[in-house]
Amino acid sequence: MQIGPLTFDGPVVMGILNVTPDSFSDGGRFHERDAALRQAETMLADGAAILDVGGESTRPGAADVPVGEELDRVVPVIEALQTLTDVPVSVDTSKPEVMRDAVAAGAALINDVRALRAPGALAAAADLAVAVCLMHMQGEPRTMQREPVYDDVVRDVTGFLRERLAACENAGIDPGRVILDPGFGFGKNHAHNVALLANLRELAALGRPVLVGLSRKSTLGALTGRDTADRLAASIAAATVAVLNGATIVRAHDVAATVDAVRIARAIIDAGP
What mean pLDDT comes out for the span 52-59? Predict the structure, then answer.
């Protein structure tokens, strides 16, 4: 499977490396560069095929981070990772300035929760010869979970991503560089998230690889009654279902267990008709 400069032989796991003080699950644990690199080494040993470095929390209610501060968080880590591994590094950002400097530092994927809608983001991505992930989000992080409403969440999310894929192509971005993400938990209630997971093949039918991020999210807590730190089993179940329903990339905190789940799901797919 070829996605711009990225090559994979099947579904893979993206390890989450938050270099922020306030992410919903591991905020502050890997904020310092050396701690982030130690966590990266652990995720690589556990089988991560991509490392996703983020310098701005997008949890519900999160505050904006200035460009300079986000650059100071992510660029040194991305640069250091280039000496540590050949595994591709993703930058989780919506800011065109961060996209450009992160790619200059070695990032091979732009993972944008705003689907390149920020001013200048589409042009920046068009200029950079890297893969791009377009995510659906209703609203903004500060307000996105205040009673989100859809006519039909699967149809609406799929239609939005179809339109963003077309916008990328019109801007000169090869569709072969694009990954799609339905944005679990980004302006969706628990029923919306379950419907998207159950119908993920409708998004995969757009013909682009699908990335899913369900790891430790609140919907899993609502379904199981467990706190964030106790959602490993639920995260693994969701990852397995996602791959069986067409996901190509699973974004996860718990890499080793998720890699095992993806391997099982892939074996089932390979053994099928």
Answer: 86
Contact (Cβ atoms closer than 8 angstroms) between residue 198 and residue 245: yes
Distances (CA, A) of 233 to 75, 215, 224, 229: 33, 10, 10, 11
Element of type H or E holding 201: helix 200-204
The string of pLDDT tens digits covering residues 181-202 is: 999 999 999 999 999 999 999 9
Every domain of the chain and the residues it spans: 2-271
Q: How far apart are CA 11 and CA 34, in angstroms?
A: 29
Task: Say if domain 2-271 classifies as CATH 3.20.20.20.
Answer: yes
Where in the sequence numbering do the catalytic residues fall? 217, 251
Res 115 pLDDT > 90 = yes
Q: 89 - beta bridge partners?
A: 51
What does the pLDDT look like over 25-34, one tens digit per residue? 544 455 577 8
Q: What span, in angstroms and rounded, lies between the C-alpha atoms of 138 and 153?
A: 11
